[in-house]
Amino acid sequence: MRCIIQRAEVLDGAHLMQILWHDGIESFYPAIWLRDNCQCSNCYLDSAKARKLLIEGLDVNIGIKELTFDRKKVYITWPDEHCSEFEADWLKKRCFSQQARAKLQRELFLP
Ligand SMILES: [Zn+2]
């Protein structure tokens, strides 16, 4: 299925991204999760090598500085001017259910 982004916006004081899909379904993605899953070649290679280290090095309060989107992609700029791009299909596959979000919260914020 091809996923089309109707709207993307930043919520919760920049800590959460909301996507409204063309079919009316909404998905939420925590900013820190997006930062950790940046798909650019730099971050991707780093995280494959030292994933744990990367998470420890991340600021859990990281926020999204700038968010733009088109039908197929979102573009995020971080406070350190790093840019991330996420494909709509990639995001849709990783859409957080309540259960998945609770698990993520536990892993990230309650070590
Ligand atoms: Zn990156």
Automatic annotation (TrEMBL):
The keyword 4Fe-4S does not apply. Keywords: Dioxygenase, Iron, Metal-binding, Oxidoreductase. Its cofactor is Fe(2+). One of its GO terms (molecular function) is metal ion binding. It comes from the Eukaryota. The keyword Aminoacyl-tRNA synthetase does not apply. Residues 14-91 form the Gamma-butyrobetaine hydroxylase-like N-terminal domain. Belongs to the gamma-BBH/TMLD family. This is Gamma-butyrobetaine dioxygenase-like.
